[in-house]
Amino acid sequence: MIRLALIGIGTGNPDHVTLAAVRALNAADLVLLPRKGEGKSDLVDLRRLLCRNLLSEPSRTRLVEFDLPQREGRDDYLGAVDDWHGAIAAVWGELMDHHLPAGGRVAMLVWGDPSLYDSGLRIAARLGQAGRNLEVEVVPGITSLQVLTAEHRIPLNRLAEPVLITTGRRLRERGWPADAACVAVMLDAGGAFEALPPEGLHIWWGAYLGMDKQCLIKGPLAQAGPRILESRAALRVRHGWIMDIYLLARTGPRPI
């Protein structure tokens, strides 16, 4: 039996790691640390730091780093993602078989929360479908959406109204969702809000949320949008990667 813990670790601030996450990490025999290339070394560096600071008996827990397979940039997006998940599942399985041939506890440190735009659960399901005796535990973490609203000092929703969470790809392809008052946008490759008529829209944007390089911009979309695009491009060049999120809302008589 392999017991796999998907542990949400928040968005870059070690203070956001929960006590439940600390317990799950210390229960692991093996921690798998994905590397996403030199341009995103900050992400594995933070995971290393958390393990160094939070493991109470580091000698009993094996840390194994691995290179994350790359997703093909083809037009068939869902097919490419499906193939990518299969490749990652194969790597996970090989590492578990090699390092825990008799079974044990494995931990994966997941950026944000394992349930919100993260594929850890889908990849773990593939391992079970392949016949592995696998039990999965999910430890929730603070999401970038929570940090965004906290740093901008705003509630996520308008009074008695819903919030729609979507992706930059979806926003660019389909425009403003029908009947939505507030839209949270994740996984935007850059400036999907440009596809929207800016009149009557307000934006709250954040990059590297929870980290020391955090950047925030807010305002009417017509004025803030160009500043966000300029800042985003400069930050990507400076750091070699960027992770950002934003909330859009229609302006009106009700405060957000």
Automatic annotation (TrEMBL):
GO terms for molecular function: precorrin-6A synthase (deacetylating) activity. CDD domains: Precorrin-6A-synthase (cd11643). Pathway: Cofactor biosynthesis; adenosylcobalamin biosynthesis. Its EC number is 2.1.1.152. Residues 3-224 form the Tetrapyrrole methylase domain. Keywords: Cobalamin biosynthesis, Methyltransferase, S-adenosyl-L-methionine, Transferase. It comes from the Bacteria. One of its GO terms (biological process) is methylation. InterPro entries: 4pyrrol_Mease, 4pyrrol_Methylase_sf, 4pyrrole_Mease_sub1, 4pyrrole_Mease_sub2, CobF. The keyword Electron transport does not apply. The keyword Electron transport does not apply. PANTHER family: COBALT-PRECORRIN-2 C(20)-METHYLTRANSFERASE (PTHR43467), PRECORRIN-6A SYNTHASE [DEACETYLATING] (PTHR43467:SF1). This is Precorrin-6A synthase (Deacetylating). It comes from Marinobacterium aestuariivivens. The lineage of its organism: Bacteria, Pseudomonadati, Pseudomonadota, Gammaproteobacteria, Oceanospirillales.
